[in-house]
TrEMBL record, chain A:
Residues 13-93, 142-226 form the Cysteine-rich domain. This is L-lactate dehydrogenase complex protein LldE. One of its GO terms (cellular component) is cytosol. One of its GO terms (molecular function) is oxidoreductase activity. It comes from the Bacteria. Pfam families: CCG.
TrEMBL record, chain B:
This is L-lactate dehydrogenase complex protein LldF. The lineage of its organism: Bacteria, Pseudomonadati, Pseudomonadota, Gammaproteobacteria, Chromatiales. One of its GO terms (molecular function) is metal ion binding. GO terms for biological process: lactate metabolic process. Residues 305-335 form the 4Fe-4S ferredoxin-type domain. It comes from Natronocella acetinitrilica. Keywords: 4Fe-4S, Electron transport, Iron, Iron-sulfur, Metal-binding, Repeat, Transport. It comes from the Bacteria. Pfam families: Fer4_8 (PF13183), LUD_dom (PF02589), LutB_C (PF11870).
Amino acid sequence: MTENRSSSAGKRVGLFPTCLVDLFRPSVGFATVKLLEDAGYSVDVPDGQTCCGQPAYNNGDDERARGLARQVIEAYRGYDYVVVPSGSCGGTIITHYSEMFRNDREWQDAAMELAGRTWELTRFLREVAQVESLQANYTGKVTYHDSCSGLRELNIREQPRQLLTGVTGLELREMADTDVCCGFGGTFCVKYPEISERMVSNKVENIRQTGADTLLAGDLGCLMNMAGRLQREGVPVKAYHVAEILAGIDDTPAIGEGETR
Amino acid sequence: MKSTAHAFKANANRALKDDQLQQALAKAKDGFVLKRAKAFEHYPEFERLREHGKRIKDHTLAHLDHYLERFEEQVKARGGHVHWAETEQEAREIIVGICRKHKARSVTKGKTMAGEEVSLNEAIEEAGIEAVETDLGEYIIQLAKEPPSHIIAPAVHKTRQQISELFDTHHHKGALKAKLREVPELVNEARGVLRSKFLASDVGITGANFLVAETGSMFLVTNEGNGDLTHTLPPVHIAIAGIEKLVPRMEDASALLRLLARSATGQDASCYTTMVTGPKREGDPDGPEEFHIVLLDNGRTRMLGNQFREMLRCIRCGACMNHCPVYSAIGGHAYGWVYPGPMGSVLTPMFVGLDGTKDLPNACTLNGRCQSVCPVKIPLPSLLRDLRQQQFEAGLVGKSTRWGLGIWGFFARRPGLYHWASGLGMRLLGRLGRRRGRFSSLPMAGAWTGSRDFPAPQGKTFHQLWKQRKESGQ
């Protein structure tokens, strides 16, 4: 249950679940759906999309990236809003699609029209849905990692923290260098695994220093990277997507946790 | 300078295993970041000044031909000499030529990255002339026979122990047995050695931080005063600077100086800010008899005509590398050429070529921290991405990436097939990983699992579950 003061009645949200959530952690998608429905929106997920195209774009394959961007633009026509539980994929749609079509006026217009309706989840909850309080509980000491694209392309910083203050039992402990990259970087982490390892090890050390028992972030890619390293180093910190905690879905095993721990 | 950027991966992996280097990098990183943050905390005008700085540079670059000619006229009118060097070879020939003409035996040098770009020290020494670096960091790495690893702190990769050892070898013939010494002791020792070099110098060579078109002046910014001793004591002063160092007016240089020191070292202003306008005039108490400025192109005009023009705004503060987590992990030498870190990863391919620098634009997570601290708002991540695109078009991208993108793209453009195939794949992977929730190794995923566990998928994909939910009418 969520209280809100906006006129969300009847507004349709097209959820862009992101490929990582689709494949690895549907619970993040359903947590997002719950948050949006609790705020009074009707949510749908179109079939005709797979990925925002960022892997192609960031590897210099603009042609393929444009193909995927067109697919997303087509699939999300007609929704009042498009909400993305990721600053990275959100940033691609909101800031990079129009660059991709800089030589194609018609598609650039369509890209900009989509960008105008597209929101990263926590920012949407704060600034569009105007969610003031949540009825979620989480007993734990939590630290929050600012994922780079969300932070620097979309100015996501206060929104998740403001929302987390509404979670009963949750104590937020800021880590050092919370705005420094965790070393994921999409294909970077497998192209330069040794450099990535150093970066994620630094991150794990900062997480450890806080004494937190739970790590949260708004991007599954960064979370999989950090959770994987925490587990490799044997650090007992659970990792969840911030949407899961905000929606109160903490009975799902944390990222990388199984039936037996 | 000869590039070793083609060996980036090997360079980087060696750097990651170098304990001394890691120690030095860890120490340097926090200092730079904290000092810069503190400087701007007390400088609320920063954002406005950044925009102003960007505009000054954009305007100058748009009219560079005009301002270069203006600058040349002004330098000449004040009795100085202007030399145009299109290539690094031309720059070397011009400078060595001037030194020879004056029968120089010893040359003192202030720190100049443009000089590093054209391998100036090697050229001077090949001509049988002694070249002495007078910036402390630059002096240290000259003794170590290494290139700089940072554009404002050239010896940032060295620990105090390593510097003690170097000085012991070169100043005491090993007599101190490489005892670890305190910083003031080391500084005083270098000062003593360099003093005699300054007094014996025939030609002083410096870089320049800004060139002012309206007056023909150049600015020189240092914290050690070595730049002043280099330019005032010898009878001849030669400055070498890239053509992008130009600004129209004195007040433009003044605005950029405010950004430079704060961004670089967190100082409001550097300890020495020297303005040089031509040679010594009648009645001047000191200064060189002759003043030469070498304007270096070396590929810069090629950048003027495309999106990489934005890179020519760079004022060489080093903030991008100080805030780069990749630079902090591997240090500057791994990048293999004069300019390291994010700015170097754009410049090196521009100057050295796309081939042979393939890793540089890719060894970046596009996290954008560099852009957020750049005092002249250079969109470094976009430029790095543009270089990736050029690599892709030029067929320089490796087979595995190309094939990977091809196969992934084939499925990703066919949503029905993609959802069906990914549903099968995730079900299998989810089942295999259900008990433990993760994998410590996976076929074909060694690059991931070499250093971290791989989280298992939950089993069904979101699309499958969403379809189920819709069908059950919830």
